[in-house]
Amino acid sequence: MEDSKEPTFRSYNQKQGAIYSQNRPTYHPNLYKTIIDYHVSTGGKLNTILDVGCGPGNAVRDLSSHFTQAIGLDPSEGMIKAARSLGGTSSDGSHIQFETSTAEELGAGTSLNLADSSVDLIVAATAAHWFDMSLFWPRAAKLLNPGGSVALWAARGGYIHPSTPNHAAIQDYITQIQDKFLRAHAKQGTGIVFDLYTDLVLPWSLEESQDEFDKGAFFHKVWNKETVCSNGDEFFASQQEPQFMSFDLDKLEKMLGTKGTVTRWREANACKTGTEEDIVKVMRGHIEGLLYEVGVPKGQEELNMGVEGVLMIVKKHS
Q: Given this model, what pLDDT does residue 19 score?
C-alpha cells in the first residue's frame, strides 16, 4: 500500500494482508461508477487498468470486470501474496496480475514489461499520499495511452456521527486517545489525507511540469466534507446512509487494527498488544461505558461513523 516513507504496510506478511482485506471497508459502486463514467466520457478506453499501492487487491478486484487486463502493484511482498491468494479475473476471464513494485517504478523491472502507452486507467485507493509524486507523474505519463486517466481517491473518517447516542462524549474521548497515544505514530502522509488531498502534488504543480496531462480536464469531487452530505452519494459500500457507516464494536475493533497508527503503536508496545492494555481494547471498553451510561442495552453497542472522501481524476491529452 505505501512506499518506503510508510514502512508499516510494506512489512506486512501474507496473513496480515488477508486480515487487512477482510476488515477494511470496501468502496461503494457509486464511487467506481463515477470513475469509469468520467474516464470513458473523456476518451478513455477499457483495455488495461493498473492499481498502484493495491495492497491485497480489493479495489482492482472490484474494477477488473470493466477491463480485459487488470494489474495490481504494491511494494509489500506480503500484500502481493495475499492479493494473489484472493485472486480475481478481468472481463475476459484472465487472472488479475499482481506484482511487487513501487508507485515510482510502476512495474519497471518486473516481468510485466509494460510498454509506453499501454495502460488506460491508473488508480490508487487511499495510497497516493505515500507516493513520491515527482517520480510517479512522469512514469504515469509514459505508461498511459492518450486519453488515459489517473484516478486517486482517499477516505478520511472516524468522526462520530450525531445519530450515535452520547456522540459528543465518544468523539471527545477518541480525540483524546488520538492526541495522547496515536498522533506520535502518525506519518507525514496522514496529514495529506486529513486535508482531503488539498496538498497532494499534481502534475502541473511539479518543478518540471508534466505537459502530457490536461489541467482543463481535471475532475475533483469531495464527499461529505465537514459532515455536509453530498447529493446522497455513498463512498463506502457498507454505508447504510450517505453520511455514515455503522459498526458494532467487534467490527470496529477489527477495523481499527488495520490502521497504520494502531499498528505502529502495537509495534512500540508489544508487551501490551493483545492484552487488556492494548490501545484498541482500552478504547472499546471506554466506548462501551459511554454507550451504557445513556441507556444503550448490552448487545446493541453500535457506532455510526462519519465518512469523508475525495476523488481526483487527471487526464492525459488525447
A: 67
